[in-house]
Design goal:
With 421 residues, this protein is mainly alpha-helical. 60% of the residues lie in helices and 3% in strands.
Length: 421
């Protein structure tokens, strides 16, 4: 091969190499920038001007993340989900594709037609939710694994590759007495490493990046994957910003987000003297405390209402005469920034001790409307729902006769709770 050593012939390789070098450096710099910002003080990072090295080196950001048990647990769920989901999906899909690649398979054309239809049409989120509920997969780890076992798109890729394998190999194995399982496991799978790696990459990335399943199908915080947890933190940070609050007031927000919100709060407070800024912050905190106190008082009243089939007495609270096991109530809060477990703080621990009720608190991860709309449409509602009067779901709940007036519950179950005369 004769190479063109003229200036024109050498220009393209040089310019091409220079362009690819700059392109790679731009990608590497973005990764490096994330690293140096994570190693810099959060409040100082708001000033900008950090390009190559941290200006105020600190490990507090990493200490905050590694000290958050929910993040570590979510990361473990994601790793386990990715490993189990990828292996099971690749094996199951390849097994189905191997059978579908055989032209003598009975009903093959019908199966292909049905599979192609699933790539074009979808039953929708609500039927899918109802199906998972009927299979008892909601709020379990297997809601991540079983629905993702088979993908017809991946099946088509497997089928195309299996057809390139010479049929003589299978015929020779059949003559030697090998079964279909043995041919698949000892001949087809070892020869299919390229397509196995490709589908494993597709499936693994899909499992790792999925956050929506944790938003809609999982209420247990111990089963939430890391992507859902990250989306929850980002959304919570936005709620704090648009709501005029400070993320430092929300104990569930990690340290870096607290620093960022504090910096924005400081900028909004420019022009105020220290006394004005302190007064404004105090009023905001008192307003939050009052809202939370009203919410807890209402919940305390609700917990005292349900009783066993006993004769009610207007002179004594019904919860004192009810000695049966109260069980667990589910309480949905349409506030994604709420964190904590019922019974850990002194207020809820006192309520649990006095009423005998345990409460499973459910909060949405990300968009509140998605979670609540799904539960309303599926008629799978918790015992108690807390949301703002302005939310459009309030009208839906009333129209569906899913709201019970508190005074009627009191008249029927606990007249003692009625208004004082």
């Amino acid at each position: 091969m004769v190479r063109d050593k003229s200036a024109r012939g050498m220009a393209f390789p040089i310019l091409n190499g220079l362009f690819l070098t700059l392109f790679c450096l731009s990608i590497l710099y973005l990764m490096w920038y994330v690293v140096i910002i994570s190693l810099n003080d959060g409040a100082d990072s708001l000033r900008g001007g950090i390009y190559l090295w941290p200006r105020e080196f600190t490990l507090r950001n990493y200490q905050s993340v590694l000290g958050d048990a929910s993040l570590i647990r979510a990361f473990g769920v994601t790793v386990l989900r990715t490993l189990v989901g990828t292996v099971s999906s690749v094996f199951f899909t390849s097994m189905v594709a191997y059978a579908m690649s055989k032209r003598h398979l009975f009903g093959r054309k019908l199966y292909l037609l049905i599979g192609t239809g699933t790539m074009i049409f979808s039953g929708g989120l609500i039927p899918y939710f109802l199906l998972l509920r009927s299979l008892k997969l909601l709020d379990t780890f297997w809601v991540y694994i079983i629905p993702a076992l088979f993908s017809f798109y991946n099946c088509i890729i497997f089928m195309s590759f299996f057809r390139t394998i010479p049929a003589a190999l299978e015929e020779s194995a059949n003559i030697d007495g090998a079964s279909d399982w043995r041919i698949f496991l000892t001949i087809i799978i070892p020869l299919s490493k390229p397509v196995l790696a490709t589908i494993a990459l597709f499936s693994g990335v899909g499992h790792w990046n999925d956050y929506f399943s944790g938003v809609v199908f999982v209420n247990n915080p111990d089963l939430v994957p890391i992507q859902t947890r990250k989306n929850d933190l980002v959304h919570r940070d936005q709620v704090c910003h648009h709501g005029g609050g400070n993320a430092a007031d929300h104990p569930g927000v990690p340290f870096p987000a607290k620093i960022l919100r504090q910096g924005r709060h400081d900028r909004r407070g420019q022009g105020m003297n220290p006394a004005q800024a302190g007064s404004l912050d105090k009023r905001r905190r008192l307003s939050r405390m009052k809202r939370m106190a009203r919410m807890l008082a209402l919940l305390m009243a609700i917990l005292l209402l349900p009783t066993a089939a006993l004769a009610v007495n207007a002179d004594e609270p019904a919860w004192k005469s009810d000695t049966q096991d109260k069980g667990t109530l589910t309480w949905y809060l349409n506030l994604s920034w709420v964190t904590g477990v019922w019974g850990e703080d002194w207020t809820t621990a006192y309520m649990k001790e006095k009423t005998g009720f345990d409460v499973q608190v459910i909060v949405p991860a990300g968009n509140e409307s998605e979670k609540l709309n799904t539960m309303i449409a599926a008629n799978d509602l918790p015992d108690i729902i807390t949301l703002g009067w302005w939310e459009p779901q309030v009208a839906d709940l009333i129209a569906a006769d899913l709201v019970l007036p508190l005074n009627k519950l009191a008249d029927e179950y606990d007249p003692y709770f009625g208004p004082a005369e």
